[in-house]
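Pair request: fold both.
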Amino acid sequence: MTIAGLAGAGGIGFVLLALAINAVYIRVGFPMPNSGRSPSEVADSLVALGGRLRKPSVVAPATWLFTTVFAAGLLAELWRGEPRADAWALVGFAGVLMQNATFAVVEALRFGMAAAAQNRDSIVGLWTLNNVLFGFNQVFLALALIGFSTAGVGVGFLPEWHAWLGYLSAALLFVSSSVSPYNADGTNRIAVTGLIGWLGWAAWIVVCSVLLLAGS
């Protein structure tokens, strides 16, 4: 499949997942932004919601993956070597990346608010925010590994084995990122998965650095 095809599939996949996630949030009674509810009402809703917030949030990293692939494919299609048009295409691509990063914070904040509402203790909410946001961030490392590995092999800069190291590390990081909602309290039963993925990421960087130095 071409990059254009992957981008199209990613765009459709994002829309379908986003609709499904929001439908689940509404069904379980999650207080959506701009709903007009008072802070006390929001707190009561979050307490009643309990652990039901976790399941729809498991697929949140997939939406960011889909939007990034979509944006990259659209950028490739729009790139014509014309400075003005290319600059605007880059602005659009940057907007998608910034949206992904910002929404990762929003998604993590939901768990922080839920914890704060149940325990009436701000530090619990902030700690929960830290844990979930840290976990979700791994999906961006996975994207970097996939993108640079694919591009590096395509131009003959990276050897095949190195690219597969990137792909394997990306898969581990993505799995670890996807289960972040279940690690909100700091207990992570598959922490070794993310750790191995991060070590693979670090090794991947070292090899890339050596290749860059050798070619300089």
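--- second member of the pair ---
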Amino acid sequence: MSGKGLHVHLDPVGGAAGDMFIAAMLHARPDLTARVLADVALVLPVEVGRAELTEHVASGIMSRQFKLVLATGGTAARHGADTTYKAMRALLEAAPLSQGTAEAACDILHRIAEAEAQVHDIPIDRVHFHEIADWDALMDVTAAGSICAALEGASFSLAPLPLGGGLVDTAHGKLPVPAPATALILQGYDWHDDGIAGERVTPTGAAILAHVTGSTHGTRPPGRLSATGSGAGTRVMKGLPNILRVTMFDTAQSGVLQDQLVQLACDIDDMTGEELGAATDALRADAGVVDAILLTAQGKKSRPVVRMELLVRPDHADAVAARVFDLTSTLGLRRTVVDRLILPRNTEIAPDGQRRKRSRRPAGHDTLKVESDDLDASVTLAARRMAARAGEMED
């Protein structure tokens, strides 16, 4: 169940919480329900209860709710050492969850722990959860991780978040909304005030949103609408449905896939050719860099400059930007989110043993191209071209 070619847009109409995200996603993709419930059952003790997905009407909008149904005598509360970040992470890592679930769930949990560590100025391994300590919070983290793993490769975008207002009860007393951890996790995101007070985005909801959107949370690519879903919260709001809505789009139209990258660009006029070459080679070797080019131009004061342009995977953008500042003399970077159209392709072995890339064109035919490195043994240009033509012939 790959998410390649899938784009998910999130509209936090009423707000965003872990259970709202899960319910909305399973409303739009009911085929994931069995996987998600099975993963949750592996971390949720039978004596505590079970996860349940139900139909729910929120202000007249048909939606879904995801909740913990307690067993007789069961309690959602957890106390003591079991509620530390280390213990909760260890529980996720030890459970025999579906492929990718533990990794995604642990990343979500880590975002919350990292924010809490910063709020309280303590090492992350000393973080002791309070508001998200109970079984239903661990259930939400696991279920969200299961969905994210099942849809690996999908892209996400997010509409502005409702700010809310007033105070929220915490283990440390009443604190302003958004809660400190929520505000830290969602720094850089767009917010709006719709005049409705209360906590509108929870720390778990914030961590899930940050996990799925990365640094491209404001961009929604074109595509064909394929599914919608709504996840309802427990609070009833006057004049506003308390839902998180998802809309899913197929961006693989006419055989072309679409994804998003971050472009980093700068102009450099005070580095030697050797220095630029070394910096560019080091950046090309970075796992987050998809492509790197150097262009010559004329800059300020009629100086010759070299423009460096990098295409970077969104979740690596900050780290690559730091690398550019360390490896070059530039004092600033231009950062742009760009859409990329990609033809489906795969690598195969030609009859002569060379690797070649097969691409499917929108018109329906395939093209073949031998990997350049496999032609390096050719002693002349003519031999290289002959070897390429041989490798690009159909079997």
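Observation on the second member. The mean pLDDT is 90.
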